[in-house]
Design goal:
The complex is a heterotrimer. By secondary structure, chain A is α/β, with parallel strands linked by helices. Helices cover 29% and strands 26% of the residues of chain A. Chain A is globular, with a radius of gyration of 16 Å. In chain C, strands 7-6-5-8-9 form a five-stranded parallel β-sheet. A four-stranded parallel β-sheet of chain C has the order 2-1-3-4, with helices on both faces. The longest helix of chain C has 18 residues. Classes of the chains: A alpha/beta, B alpha/beta, C alpha/beta. At the A-C interface, helix 4 of A face helix 1 of C.
Chain lengths: 190, 429, 306
């Protein structure tokens, strides 16, 4: 819903990253993941729906190209763990969580497109822990825009983008029929 | 007390239909004619002129079927409140059913009702006595005594007589007093457990239906018994196309039968029940569009003699029960006029015929000397503004109960004054 | 889209899109019920009252489990059905429940329309868990979910519903749901068990079992209320079983691989032969499992702040 409204206001977009920059950032993060975890053994990627899932698949592809081995990928819908459910009038549509492997004792890299308040990541960690007891949880994001409301920090960051509260960051991805790019959208009245 | 009703359009069915004044003295109609002289204060101590310009001046209405609930169910209605409701609806004569507690199956209950009615002074009340003791359908009540005490007909309304032999004997016995025998036609085996019309809506709602046949088989039985005995049969609240057809045929063959229909049965269909609305729960139930058309046709061609309300007050908490458990019936006295006038608007009845269904025809069915403006008759008059639109607001009903499915309806035709035996008993604000 | 309604009182008022939303939501909960830890915090702090005026261990347990797996607090409240007869109004009942600060009321009641009446009288969300012969929406939804899970498409699906349609809320809710989604429904039973005007609901009525089963994809058997024997609807159980019981032989008349459903509890050897109930065709136990996921979905969708 939010994506669609922002779409309509395309004229207030300010480009932050283009397709090349997105690709380079992901390649770098893939290398960093391998470096930090000394390979891919015992590591799995879990994307947060929806943008994070696409990014997790791209990271997995890069990791496989580099290491010639496959990395398990899960898809996590954090809706049921949101901290604002009780306050909402109409409940958001659920998308299925699919983590087709046992996460216990694995190093899990959570993947999301934008890190903002940290509440989504808090919910994601709760959701993950309901599935098992991972050895470690790391966090990879394409964009960190600041304004944290919880003590959460990303392990891997594509790009730090300072924003003001009333701005929105939107990540457009090929998988959703868009040209890869990151834009900043002015939240003020047009 | 002298009253002159001046400048109105008088309809006294079969006698007068045109501009006329009505002069009332000492509780009686003295004269109906044009340009009558106003009563002068010097002539009589109390005199009054009612300006009826642009209004209809009609005989007070006669309702063959009301439940006044007293004795026994005073929390629903009393004779005082029920007759006040009648007056507000333009009714000056009401026939009250015997399903009170105790049942009106003996002289003392009849006398009690008449005493209460006299004390209230809002309407003429004509009690209907029970056919059988306690309306249990077994032994005949003392019909002769009931007649002498003032009952004008007999009925086991609400507890229809299932035993055909008992019904035969009741009809035969009532002949001796020329009393009409009323039946609420319902085969209790066919209707058992039912709470609405059996049809598409009952199937969708999962409510047990009452088939039209539950009424039709008893209408057929009663017509056969009336033919056998020669008794005066009156069919209460006819609701099905089958009933209308059989009554039409029976009348053509000379059987002594009269019939009434209720405003809700020609204004609403089973669709009104759709959201489990207990205010649309009644017995007989609201039927289909085809049945409604048949009733209108019956009214038009005279098969159905009278419009009666089946005024059935129930307390709010009773109608708040689950649909299957809620009691049947609606309050009808204060909405009958506009719903009847709607038939005129629709072209079903002429204005005079509509008035006759509320006055002369019901009076004739029960041999009541009411429902007329003939000189010498009791001065029972309804003054009606036929063009006046209003919204039905149950909170303004005179009736103690407010159970109506017509709340919020925008209707046309308002009673502006009701006169009972020369006394103004109701005037609209 | 989201479910923009306070209550779920019946299938009749749902749009096809709303039905599909509920089924898709249930998918997520089916995944949750397959986990080691079968619990999510979505309804933390909410109170669900199971208000059952009729005994029903299955449906109540299913709702209770669903609510608990969503982290809601659950109260089971089973007034005697005599209080219905005594004439305590639903409004009184409603006031009692409001006083318990219930967010969601799950109502099972012997009177048709009770859920709608209650829903009009309270601010809480109301879920109909069966009202008289009227509706049992979550049963129909779990039946649909099970069909969909087995890979069947609703459009053009041929479904036979066999038994006492007239007195079955399960049949009604399924008829409403399946016709909305484009399925072809055959109602099968003796004329005493077929309600008036059923054909006007887009259902084809059959009185002969063999004729009705020919070529169907799904057979929904209804539970026979044994107490209706004799006086009312059928002469004897023996004769009913012979005419309308689902045997292995009869099952062969249906499409190969046709599914057999039953809302439970089964009268084995009456409406359904034991070998059929236990056969590969039977999805009766899947129905039970899916019941929890579907009810979690419904509870979740109605749990928004009122």
């Amino acid at each position: 819903m939010i994506a669609r409204e922002e779409h309509a206001n395309r004229k207030h977009e300010k480009p932050i990253m283009d397709a090349h920059e997105v690709a380079r950032a992901l390649t770098r993060i893939a290398h960093e993941i391998l470096e930090r975890n000394k390979g891919i053994r015992g590591t799995a990627l879990v994307g947060i729906r929806t943008g994070g899932v696409h990014l997790a698949h791209r990271l997995a592809k890069r990791i496989q190209e580099i290491e010639q081995g496959s990395v398990p990928i899960g898809e996590l819908d954090i809706t049921l763990y949101r901290d604002d459910l009780a306050l909402r009038k109409d409940q958001p549509v659920l998308r299925k969580t699919s983590v087709p492997f046992d996460i216990t004792d694995l190093k899990i890299v959570l993947v999301d497109d934008v890190l903002f308040t940290g509440r989504t990541i808090r919910a994601a960690m709760d959701g993950l822990i309901d599935l098992g007891r991972p050895a470690e949880i790391q966090l990879a994001v394409l964009v960190d825009r600041g304004h944290r409301q919880l003590p959460i920090k990303a392990t891997y960051i594509g790009k730090n983008i300072p924003t003001s509260q009333d701005e929105n960051i939107h990540v457009f991805l090929e998988e959703e029929g868009e040209e890869d790019r990151v834009v900043i959208i002015n939240g003020g009245a047009p | 007390m002298t009253i002159l009703i001046r400048g109105g359009h008088v309809i006294d069915p079969g006698r007068v239909n045109g501009p006329a004044d009505v002069l009332i003295e000492n509780g009686k109609i003295v004269q109906v004619g044009q340009n009558l002289a106003a009563p002068s204060r010097s002539q009589t101590a109390a005199a009054r002129t009612i300006d009826a310009t642009g209004k209809l001046v009609l005989p007070g209405f006669v309702d063959l079927h009301v439940h006044l609930r007293e004795p026994g169910f005073e929390y629903k209605e009393t004779i005082q409140t029920g007759t006040a409701s009648a007056a507000a609806g333009g009714f000056t004569s009401v026939c009250c059913m015997p399903n009170t507690n105790p049942v009106n199956d003996n002289q003392s209950v009849t006398e009690f009702i008449l005493d209460q009615a006299r004390a209230a002074g809002n309407a003429h009340v004509f009690p209907v006595g029970a056919i059988t003791k306690g309306s249990e359908g077994k032994e005949l009540a003392e019909i002769g005594d009931l007649r002498r005490a003032g009952c004008v007909a007999i009925s086991d309304d609400g507890q229809p007589v299932m035993n055909s032999l008992v019904m035969r004997r009741a009809m035969e016995y009532a002949l001796a007093f020329d009393l009409p025998v009323i039946d609420h036609c319902e085969d209790l085996h066919l209707s058992e457990g039912g709470c609405m019309n059996e049809g598409l809506v009952s199937t969708q709602l999962g409510l047990q239906g009452i088939p039209a046949a539950a009424e039709d088989v008893m209408v057929a039985r009663n017509l056969s018994l009336a033919e056998l005995t020669g008794a005066r049969l009156h069919l209460a609240h006819v609701s099905t196309a089958g009933s209308v057809r059989m009554v039409r045929e029976a009348k053509a063959r000379g059987i002594r039968v009269t019939a009434e229909a209720c405003p809700h049965h020609f204004s609403l269909t089973e669709e009104a029940v759709r959201d489990f609305n207990t205010l649309a729960k009644m017995n007989p139930p609201l039927r289909t569009w085809q049945d409604v058309q048949a009733i209108k046709e019956g009214l038009r061609d005279g098969t159905i003699d009278a419009i009666a309300t089946d005024h059935a007050p129930h307390a709010q908490q009773e109608k708040q029960l689950e649909f299957a458990h809620a009691p049947n019936g609606i309050v009808g006295l204060e909405t009958a006029l506009p719903l009847t006038l709607a038939l005129v608007e629709e072209g079903v009845l002429s204005l005079e015929a509509a008035v006759a269904k509320l006055t002369t025809d019901p009076a004739k069915a029960f041999s009541l000397s009411k429902g007329t403006l003939a000189p010498g008759a009791d001065a029972d008059v309804a003054v009606v503004d036929a063009q006046r639109q209003w919204e039905v607001d149950p909170s303004r009903f005179r009736s103690k109960s407010k159970n109506t499915p017509f709340a919020g309806w925008k209707v046309k035709g308002l009673v502006t004054a009701t006169i009972l035996a020369g006394k103004v008993v109701y005037e609209s604000a | 889209m989201s479910l923009k309604r306070k209550d779920l009182t019946g299938i009749a008022s749902l749009s096809p899109d709303e039905i599909m939303l509920i089924l898709e939501t249930a998918d997520s909960f089916k995944e949750v019920t397959g986990r080691e830890i079968k619990k999510v915090p979505a309804l933390r702090g909410k109170t669900v009252v199971n208000f059952f005026f009729e005994p029903s261990t299955r449906t109540r347990t299913s709702f209770e489990l669903a609510a608990k797996r969503l982290s809601a607090d659950v109260i089971n409240f089973s007034p005697s059905s005599s209080s219905v007869v005594k004439g305590e109004t639903l409004l009184d009942t409603a006031r009692n429940i409001e006083a318990m600060q219930a967010d969601i009321i799950v109502l099972r009641h012997p009177a048709a329309g009770a859920a709608e009446t209650l829903a009009r009288g309270v601010k809480s969300s109301v879920i109909n868990a069966g009202d008289g012969w009227h509706e049992h929406p979550t049963q129909a939804l779990l039946d649909l979910y099970t069909l969909r899970e087995k890979g069947l498409a609703f459009k053009g699906l041929r479904v036979a519903i066999v038994g006492d349609i007239a007195h079955s809320r399960v049949a009604r809710s399924n008829i409403f749901a399946l016709t909305k989604l484009g399925a072809e429904i055959r109602a099968v039973g003796p004329p005493t068990m077929i309600p008036a005007c059923l054909d006007k609901l887009g259902v084809r009525v059959y009185h002969r079992m063999d004729e009705a089963l020919r070529g169907v994809d799904v057979i929904m058997m209804l539970r026979l209320q044994l107490e209706r024997q004799g006086r009312a609807l059928f002469p004897t159980i023996r004769e009913y079983a012979r005419l309308y019981g689902l045997t292995a032989e009869r099952l062969k008349l249906a499409e190969p691989g046709a599914l057999v459903m039953h809302p439970g509890p089964i009268n084995r050897g009456v409406e359904i032969a034991p070998e059929v109930a236990d056969s590969f065709s039977s999805v009766i136990l899947d129905q039970v499992t899916n019941g929890v996921a579907v009810r979690m979905g419904v509870l979740y969708l109605l749990s928004g702040a009122n």
